[in-house]
Amino acid sequence: MTYVNTVKMLQDTMRNNYVVGAFNIVDIVTMSAVIDAAKEKKSPVIIQTSQKTVKQLGYKILASSAKLLSQETDVEIAMILDHGTDPEIIKNCIYNGWSAVMVDGSSKPFEENIKITREIADIAHEHNVSVEGELGHIGGVEEHISVSDSNVRLTDPEKIREFKELSGVDSLAVAIGTQHGLYKGKVSLDFERLGKIMKIADFPIVIHGCSDLPEEDLKRIISFNPSKMNISTEIKHVYLNSYKDYLCNDNNNYEPINVIKLVYDNTKKLVEGYMDKFNSSNRY
Ligand SMILES: [Zn+2]
Fold this sequence. Notes:
The protein has helices at 6-16, 28-41, 51-57, 59-69, 87-96, 110-126, 160-167, 191-200, 215-223, 233-249, 256-277; strands spanning 20-24, 45-49, 77-84, 100-103, 130-135, 139-142, 145-147, 171-174, 179-180, 205-207, 228-231. The chain is an alpha/beta fold.
């Protein structure tokens, strides 16, 4: 059993120059595709669940499946609640077997963000669950998180140490211009800011909104050696496009297992591609 929290997993990336991919799953098919990709690529991996996914599938199915699928392998597998804004859901994930939670207090002022995050971090750490916080405010739309351009706040590098210390987080998501959802128009990332953040941070840094980035921008982010990069939107697109392709091309054959296989294969392929780009393959 190598179901772990993200503390050592992300610290290892800082020593050895690679990124751990965090992939948002939407059901057990996508969860098993992500975990099988990790096993095949011999790459650490983080399963991400949104609050919406948790509400739909339930705590017990998600946690027991993640633990079960993490058996009989040396590959480290973690499961994190992504963008936890509801304290009840975050606490229930901690009590029900998630190995990590993200506390998203990024819509609040600095001091309040610290307070919200600290409260949960203390509970999480009592249960050996690691914690990700967010400083700055990442733009775009992803399920219950919607941040318009005018509300985006890029992370102040000078504030990250203070935030980490006072909030008690193990890793920190920063805003450098990446966005949730698909990119509209030209992507404009603040690499100078990311460089400053990476220079100051002696703890794992997380980049959200890495779906749909131009190859050049993706490579450049990876070159700064953040510890975790999040892929969500692309999995949703692969999922629904698999159904669309199946129904358009094979519509006389109403066979659910065929389309489930298509979703599994396409998700696994996408994830394996990212593991190679993140340089996290062959770590065991
Ligand atoms: Zn995010």
